[in-house]
Specification:
The chain has about 270 residues and is mostly helical. The chain has a single domain, classed as ABC transporter involved in vitamin B12 uptake, BtuC. It is built from eleven helices and no strands. Helix 3 packs across helix 9 and helix 4 packs antiparallel against helix 5. The radius of gyration is 18 Å and the shape is globular.
Amino acid sequence: MVELLRMAFFQKALVAGLLIGIAASLVGAFVVLRRLSSIGSGISHSAFGGVAIGLVLGINPYGSALIFAITVGLMIGLSVRRLSLSEDSAVGLFFPATMALGIAVLSKIEGYTPNLLSYLFGNILLVESRDILFAGGTLLLILLLLGLFYREWTALTFDAETAEATGIPVARMDALFLSLLAFVVVVSIKVVGIVLVSALLVTPPLTALKLSKSFSSLLLFSALAGALSTLAGIFLSYYINIPSGAAIVLFSTLLFFAVSLIKRRE
């Protein structure tokens, strides 16, 4: 293990995984409490359409995925508020449409077809220094927005109607949160991939719910569970030679059940 930790690529993977695991889990705590798991899943899968557009146009697929995911997230929120759709219905509308768009766009690539496995299931062992900077910037952005809008987002999480009655701009706060959610989703693609991003958002916070007695402790335990899951998953990925995304999600799920069993015996 000592030799492994001396390898530059593995060091980068650990740092990137730690940053993204914490970032996704912090945002995921709000996702779980607000019962927005389906929206998180919809936004994560919509990124596939953005990746496809980037590959066809020859631009950075992560950049195009970010723009596309933010747009879809805002459209889902707008559909819920303006078209009186349920969240599940809005996701059911955009999820297949964006995936179909991605498939249609990729079918136009002639000759060489890019290997999509790294986008779908992640490969954190291929992270670069700029990915670490991006992940660190994302975590700082989340912490900054939490500091600025903690009261508003907490109020929205527990009682949206009362929050609106007290003058909190619910629509703008929702739009900001969905944009941040889309941002975290795209940053997490390299770690767990498009298919498994929703698990990184949901499973660590669910584990934290078993341990926490307040909202602040939920955020803390969620971040710890996300960090532990990504770090352990990276080691598993390397040693048993499976995609990093799969290893992280499997460990995170096992951690949830382990904590659940321990708490039941107390």
